[in-house]
Write a structure and sequence with these properties.
InterPro entries: Aerotolerance_reg_N, UPF0353/GerABKA_families, VWF_A, vWFA_dom_sf. The protein is α/β, with parallel strands linked by helices. The protein has 12 helices and 11 strands.
Amino acid sequence: MTYHSLWALWFLLPLVLILIWNFWKRKKKTPTLQFGSVELLKSVAPTLRTRLMHLPVILKSLALVFAIVALARPQEMNTKIRKNVEGIDIVICLDVSDSMLIEDMKPLNRLEAAKETIAKFISARTSDRIGLVVFAGESFTMVPPTLDYQMILQRVNEISSASSAKIKDGTALGVAMANAAGRLKDSQARSRVMIFMTDGENNSGTIDPETGLEIAKGYGIKVYSIGIGKDGPTRIPVYSRDIFGQKVKTYQPFESTVNEDLLGRMASDTGGKYYRATNEGALQRVFSDIDTLEKTKIDVNKFTNYTEKFPPFLIWALVLYLAGLLLGRSWLRRVP
């Protein structure tokens, strides 16, 4: 409950002071009679009328308290907040070729670092439809754009490399971009965004990257491209089984190369931005930057309805004052 005129409650202070002053003054002026002996008076019990002689003053005082509260206009506040949310549609396109298993990022390798960062990004979004596309030598849609974040996070956790998923290895950038763009072509959102993550250059697929880029541009999709890992000679883990059926990890030399020119054009031609993430910290900063650039538009309208609660206080003030006035002039009338 709130009060429209809270200042009116200050009138309670002088009321209390006046009551104290009247009580002190009345006590001081109490008439006295002299008796030779008070033994007889002690045996006389006070009547009900005597006990209630201060009731009119009490009722009138309570009436004034209720009147002051009514003057302060107590109100019940009912606030309704209406949010108009204008979300965006995002498709995350992740390279799962076996080179993403290179162990130059924490917690384990490039793929696990990407999965961890993507999961944090998804958990921080609200009201945006998010989809997930993976690719190696071919491309697959794991989740079309949806608001079911729990399902997306579950599918992110299930992502594995091309060899583990038994799909064609390689890096089909054009096919992946065309597939991701196809998931956004029918979007009605104010902004359509593709986050494209890879650690290699195009070496597979039936659609070349230039064609994939033109498709994305044609649908008005903004591309944020991310080159993952360091260029240069490195080692890629290879898993096999020994004669006892145990999984054995060995390494083979690998030349890691990111086509920065292509990724840069993917971003610049669509109004996006290109990033290079050579470690897990840089990758997290990239997604933080994208999270800042692509914000959901939320318009908040607040409506407050006030219901007046002073009438009952005013009625009680009137009833108590009339009761005190009638009792003071009739049954409880005091004669000087």
